Amino acid sequence: MNRRLFLGLGAYAASGTSDMVETARIQEEIPGHLVIRGAIDAALGGETIYELPRLQQLPSVSFKTITPWTTGAHTFKGVNLKTLMAAVGARGSIVRATALNDYAITIDLSDSAASLAIVAYEEDGQPIRVRDKGPLWILFPFSDHPELLTDRVEGWSIWQLDAIEVLAP
Amino acid sequence: MTKFARARFWRDRRTTVLALMGLLAVLISFGAQSLKDLNQWHEQQLRVLRDGTWFTLQAQAHFSRLMVDLDRYAEGDPTVTHDALMLQFEVFWSRVDVFSFEQAAVVFLGENGVQDFVRSSLAVLRRTEPGLQALHAGDAVAAATIRRQLDDVGSALSTLSLTINAKQVNSLQTNDARSAALFRRVSFGMAATAATGVILVLMLLSAMRQQQRHLKTALAAERQVSTAKADLHAVIDSLPAIISARDQAGRYLFVNRSFAQFFGVSQTATIGSAYPPQGMLAPPTGADMPSGGHGGYHEVEVTAHDGKKRTMLMTDVPLRDAGPNPDRTVRIALDITERKEAENRIRFLAECDVLTGVPNRAFLLDHLDKLLRQRPQPLLSLTIVDLDDFKAVNEMLGHSAGDALLVALALRLGEGEGNHMICRLGGDEFAILSQGVRSDRAAMAQAEALQLRLHQPFIINDNVVHISASLGLAMTHRESSTTADLLRNAAIALASAKSKGRGRIASFTASLAAQHTHRKRLEADLHGALANGTELRLEYQPKFELSMRQLTGFETLLRWDHPQLGPISPSVFVPIAEEIGLIGRLGSWVITEAARQIAEWEGRGLASWLKFAVNLSAAQFIHGDIVSSTIGILRTAGVRPDRLSIEITESILMRDVVRASDALKRFREHGIGVSIDDFGTGFSSLSYLVQFPFDELKIDRHFVRTMLHSPAARAVVRSVIDLARSLEATVVAEGIENERQLIALHDMGCRLGQGFFLSEPLRPAAAALLMEGCRALAVAS
């Protein structure tokens, strides 16, 4: 929960767009789409959009875990974040993730914790609704790795994930 | 002592050392543990407080965004699609839902309170959802129903935010008491650690000396000493404190491992040298050494070897072998940086604005610092909103209404579109920080929209209250803005807006900056001018009797000859002096200089029948006892009070009628004449005016200048003359520039006048000549 404040600041800082631009962005990128931009494979032209089916084509990972923001344990399915970054040919290891709710966080992919991260798109076999922190949610197997329950990793657990920008190395 | 006796001595000593070490270990761990407890506890508090503030703010922000989208959609705004609206709804839902998992919410509201809030809010959202799903663009009626339903969630959020703020303050007060108790324990722990350290270092130094002195003694004895020394070393090294001992020359006799780590030096290389000599941890040497006891604990900032600033709690203990002067100093320091930071942080959170529930100034500064450190720097615009005449609301409706207005104002400020943060800077001053405003014009448009919203009346305790506010805005530019720049620029813009009247908006510009710099320079130089006294001087504007053109007195005029900028007009520097609190000194200077000049002229037999007028400004008049100070100055100079008269403006009188009237009476009791300056410009109320005792009315130069062309001006002049006559006061026309004006004034019955046509303001020498001429004339006739 600590992340909220911390992130609140970050989110506020990150959302430097006017309302109109904001609205336009939401229109273009309806939920279920993940925009990946920045230092990625040049062939992709600086930006690529992953709709749900395209994400599902990548190798999937599942785990059952508790989280600090849900009641009880749930099974989450998604694609490993590093796998996804490899798929877009990310050239840097620092990524900035932003959410529909304006939350934003910088994740260091070279950190060992980051290799366990997934971009979850299913919770208990169902797509995740926005109100339940979906449709995409970066999550970690907290139950298997309780050592991940730190402010930093909780902060990386960005829900309502909307875009990932790979910062140039 | 024989070799064997020595060996036994050290064997016995070693037992003592070990026993002491056991005791000390307890004391040390007590001190260290207290410090750790305090740090952890502070961190925990910090987290809860931060979160408490933020998660409500975030939810409120999203709520207003949802409402804005709803309104736009209802108006048929094509930029808001149904999908986009539903998305905002979903996101807001998640923001409410997440409260169940917020520890801070639980801390502040209790388990049940949080669950009640979440349950009732989600119930509203669930009820609203079908209507929202079916809502068609442009269907304002249906949208209004939905809005009403959602408003319940909005007000629940506001209540929540206020509750949290109130509870924060309570819990902070409780925490302060707890923090103080913990801090006492830490201090005790520190004292214990320090005492321990000193004893240990003493023993170690003594052991080292023993070892040196008896290098050639029995092997066994030497080994004993060596072992004792090693034990002591180990203990001192394990202390969390930074410990060093130095001799009078500043050379290190001993440093422990913490010291070496902190400064990034090696223990063995440091001993015997005077390095690190800089750094505040270097103990005082020679004359600086405290002469007895230890000098208490100090908090000092020290730069560690990695360049980071750390806060240390430090004490020095001087040691002496013989004689009065200490020859060694042991210094012990504990790193308390984290506790300091936590403390500072809590203090800043404590200042979170309780009344309105919005972030306070400290929060804004902190937040701006973070934003402006980012690269690329985000585009920010900062608007400072200052209510015009908020005092009047407080006075008319009472302070609780004033508070209610501030709360309502904070809410209204938050109603605008876009990504912004409202913040109360203090009093009736708010700041709005907006992101993503791309141009000055957009920022201005936002400010104008805000101004329109503020012009809508407020309903406060069943009263309709209309307010106006002045707005100053500033934007970041070219990656180089700092928090201080942005705030200062907005404040400069605000000052400019206020100077233009009520309800104005001003945007910061380069020319405003130049004006501001100029003004700051004048402020500084005015201080200098008052200090050296050579740049200030008085000129004397003669007053004449109009029919015979006889000299009747002088008005003293303050002049400032700026060494670089040349003459500065009093209309420029007097208001500055009033604002920066120099007017009292400036006023005293004028009266003192005038009194000195009058005394000098009296000594030369001049001016004994003439009155000298000095101008008093509002600030002088209202603060302090101007009557007593004036009389005091005249007495010191040996000048009779009836040689002086004071000139004040009508508006000064109106500021504080009772006080002003009282002061005027006292001036007149002393024989000091009272003249009302610039009469006609304020033209307040005759019934007010007659309350004031005065001897003279001065017709403002504006009416004199326009009276020949303007019947209205002529009417004013005539009525002032009639008024003066009926009040048995003399009347003086100011600013007579030509003979026609003089004749017209004379014809209307004005007896006295001043102005360029009669004489310009004179330097003292010229004024003396004029007086001599008049005396000759008087003698001749």
TrEMBL record, chain A:
Protein name: Oxidoreductase molybdopterin-binding domain-containing protein
UniProtKB/TrEMBL annotation, chain B:
Stretches of the chain forming a coiled coil according to its record: none
Residue stretches making up the EAL domain: 519-775
InterPro entries: Biofilm_reg_signaling (IPR052155), EAL_dom (IPR001633), EAL_sf (IPR035919), GGDEF_dom (IPR000160), Nucleotide_cyclase (IPR029787), PAS (IPR000014), PAS-assoc_C (IPR000700), PAS-like_dom_sf (IPR035965)
Keyword Transmembrane (UniProt): yes
Keywords: Membrane, Transmembrane, Transmembrane helix
A Pfam cross-reference name: PAS_4
Domain of life the protein comes from: Bacteria
PAS domain residues: 228-272
Transmembrane segments: 188-207
Ranges for domain PAC: 296-348
Residue ranges constituting the GGDEF domain according to the UniProt record: 378-510
Protein name per its UniProtKB record: PAS domain S-box-containing protein/diguanylate cyclase (GGDEF) domain-containing protein
Organism: Arboricoccus pini
